[in-house]
Design goal:
Muramoyl-pentapeptide Carboxypeptidase, domain 2, binds zinc ion, 8 strands, 9% strand, alpha+beta, single chain
Length: 287
């Protein structure tokens, strides 16, 4: 009896053993094949924006385009708008020569202190609820504060008009490319055109408008600083958590021209300190 069983079992066991070996080998192979990481794009070029900051105040005021909030159809905005040569390993999604920001640091508790500028862009998957305000929108956590500020100004007969708040990455990319192309059409090479464009406009993901944390108000021109609305904002905006983000005397630090119309939400506590001490956000966060 025993021998008969062995005769039947032996081939079956042999087949099982071979099958198990194949499965085992495949499992070992998988991590090997995935360990060959894609080559990181060469990003050793130094940032050009710094050396050209001094010129930035001479640049024309940027015109602001408000883009409507788009539904993201299950994907995050960033996934929808990856550039052709994705440099995900660095957290940046576009391939502009000389533009090499790091992903912005997002602490869950301090979302309102998010620093986005030429050095830090929105990290992958950064998404937030939006609330419509006039023809534009803001991060839903910021919008109530803006409305309160508007109401307070209105009670003193002043109108804080929301012109441009949230702007999609796609819209920012279009605007940035337009500016780059202006310089290319003047005969500058790609890298020089990007460097010049960066003085007037943030690359996609590097604008506070992409984060829904800032609002351009009333009028996009320097003369706005001579209005009663601007004077009121300088005195009162901090009570509602807003700061003048690009002051005239901080151009060399922010890399952005003086923008009296651009107001950024950072929360009341921090806004009061920043405005009282006459700092820009970069200086405040470095303290
Ligand atoms: Zn702005």
């Amino acid at each position: 009896m025993k021998k008969k069983y062995l005769k039947i079992l032996a081939p079956a066991l042999a087949v099982l053993l071979i099958f198990a070996t194949i499965v085992f080998l495949n499992k070992i192979k998988q991590p090997e094949s995935s360990s060959s990481l894609p080559e990181e794009a060469s990003q050793n070029e130094s940032q050009e924006s710094e050396q050209s900051l001094a010129e930035s105040s001479q640049e024309q005021a940027q015109t602001s385009t408000s883009a409507p909030t788009k539904p993201t159809a299950g994907k995050t905005e960033l996934e929808n708008s990856q550039g052709p040569q994705d440099t995900q390993s660095k957290g940046y999604y576009y391939n502009y020569p000389g533009v090499n920001p790091s992903p912005a640091k997002t602490e869950a508790g301090k979302w309102y202190l998010l620093l986005v500028n030429f050095d830090y862009c929105l990290p992958k998957g950064y998404s937030f609820e939006k609330t419509t305000l006039g023809g534009t929108s803001l991060d839903a956590r910021v919008a109530p504060h803006f409305k309160q500020m508007q109401a307070a100004a209105a009670s003193e007969g002043l109108k804080i008009v929301p012109l441009s708040g949230y702007r999609s990455l796609e819209a920012q990319e279009r605007l940035f490319n337009q500016t780059v192309n202006e310089y290319k059409n003047q005969g500058f090479d790609e890298k020089t055109s990007v460097a010049k464009a960066s003085k007037r406009r943030q690359p996609p993901g590097c604008s506070e408008h992409n984060a829904g944390l800032a609002m351009d108000v009333c009028e996009i021109r320097k003369n706005f600083e001579n209005t009663a609305e601007f004077k009121w904002l300088m005195e009162n905006a901090a009570q509602y958590g807003f700061i003048l983000r690009y002051p005239a005397d901080k151009v060399e630090i922010t890399g952005v021209q003086y923008e009296p119309w651009h107001w950024r939400y950072v929360g009341e506590q921090d806004a009061r300190k920043i405005m009282a001490q006459g700092l820009c956000l970069e200086e405040y966060l470095a303290l």
